[in-house]
Design a protein that fits this description.
This protein is mainly α and 399 residues long. Helices cover 67% and strands 4% of the residues. It is built from 15 helices and five strands. It is found in: Membrane.
Length: 399
């Protein structure tokens, strides 16, 4: 290897690490019709220096489906229903495509061991800073959690609950999505102290989000993980350790600064009264929109404007990825996206025989969370996808 090649490899490592790390700092952005996030800036600067060294090869099947979905999203704007809103999201889709292929062309130059080190370092830094930002937030309000929808640094006071948002997002539910990859990666790599620490910190942060959808996704992914692979003795020890911590926390709950059990009871008992934070109404409206425009939908990023035009009292994003795709891209877009998701699960299953266990629970947890979030164009999700490509290539799996 020449000196120049060595420098290019080192630059690739630094670039990937900075991109992964920047994903955890989503709250630092500039709004220009859409949010220009830190990862976009890092990506743009890095692309200037690495564009000549990117390596490309044949697309895997799930990548072909992903591109097809993106193309359907872009061409759905040809209905010209709400051109300004649609143009903004076309730009977002093009940025995501650039992000995916720049990362793809860089990751293929790096070893799996190097990539895993970057997942570990970026995740530990990101989760640690989010927890510190949350603690600073609850200290700023003197541990008095009155009000609703009040953002204080890394904490959201939501119906008297101090919910962790950290530095990844201002939405606790989105925060869980951003740390899902790191959570399950550390869960399956508890052979290092930093991963044990990362697992404990991430589990604590997820609990402090008080995210009902996030809990369901993480728990289902964790239960699935217990039944795949081997190391049953280690898994039993982990489960017992978590149970002991929960029992101790329950016993001393009244002495804790924040009583998680009381907050959890309040969050889940309110589902009947708040309709899942209004999601029942949003989902009903989305389904009605789909029935009116079943084939091609109303077009990318048209939900808010269409809801206002229809006189709907609750004009917000649908908070359900699948219903949002159905209403905005119709059955054509939904079938393409659903097929894409199935192939991600299929490829993750194939990796299990190579002792790569974390992808399957990651995608199961993400797909469950998507029932409560509109994240079909989320950058952390596509980091998981491009990492899946790299592992599939390593083990010669044609996903």
């Amino acid at each position: 290897m020449t000196l120049q090649d060595n420098r290019q490899w080192k630059w690739s490592e630094i670039f990937v690490l900075l991109v992964m790390l920047s994903l955890y700092f989503g709250i630092f952005n500039i709004y220009v019709g859409f949010s220009v996030k830190l990862y976009m800036i890092v990506l743009g600067i890095g692309a200037i220096f690495s564009i000549k060294t990117l390596a490309f090869d044949k697309l895997l099947f799930f990548e072909t489906l992903m591109i097809a979905f993106f193309m359907i999203s872009i061409f759905s704007a040809l209905q010209f229903r709400y051109p300004a809103e649609q143009l903004r999201f076309i730009v977002v889709v093009l940025i995501l495509l650039s992000y995916y292929f720049i990362m793809r062309g860089t990751l293929v130059r790096l070893s799996i061991k190097k990539i895993e080190t970057m997942i570990e370092i970026s995740g530990l830094i990101g989760i640690s800073i989010s927890l510190v930002y949350y603690v600073l937030g609850i200290m700023q309000v003197n541990m008095v959690f009155k009000g609703n929808g009040i953002q204080v640094l890394g904490a959201l006071i939501d119906r008297q609950a101090p919910r962790l948002t950290g530095v990844a997002s201002t939405d606790p539910n989105i925060f869980v999505l951003f740390v899902t990859l790191y959570f399950f990666y550390t869960f399956t790599h508890l052979n290092k102290f930093r991963n044990i620490l990362g697992f404990i910190l991430t589990l604590s942060a997820i609990v402090l989000t008080f995210s009902r959808g996030g809990y369901v996704g993480i728990v289902l992914g964790a239960v699935l993980l217990l039944f795949i692979g081997k190391n049953y003795g280690k898994k039993i020890k982990i489960v017992m350790g978590v149970c002991i911590i929960v029992i101790i926390a329950y016993y001393f709950q009244n002495q804790l600064p924040i009583n998680p059990f009381e907050q959890l009871e309040n969050r889940f008992s309110s589902i009947g009264s708040d309709g899942g934070s209004g999601r029942n109404v949003l989902w009903a409206n989305a389904w009605h929109t789909f029935t009116q425009h079943p084939l091609l939908g109303i077009g990318i990023n048209s939900t808010l404007s269409y809801s206002l035009d229809q006189g709907e009292l609750l004009a917000r994003y649908i908070h359900n990825t699948y219903l949002e795709i159905l209403s905005e891209l119709g059955i054509v877009g939904f079938i393409t996206y659903f097929s894409f998701c199935i192939m991600l699960l299929y490829t993750s299953l194939k990796l299990i025989k190579h002792k790569v266990y974390f992808f399957l629970p990651v995608f199961v947890a993400l797909f469950v969370q998507m029932f409560f979030l509109s994240v079909e164009y989320n950058e952390m999700f596509y980091l998981c996808v491009v990492l899946l490509y790299r592992y599939a290539k390593e083990y010669k799996i044609n996903g």
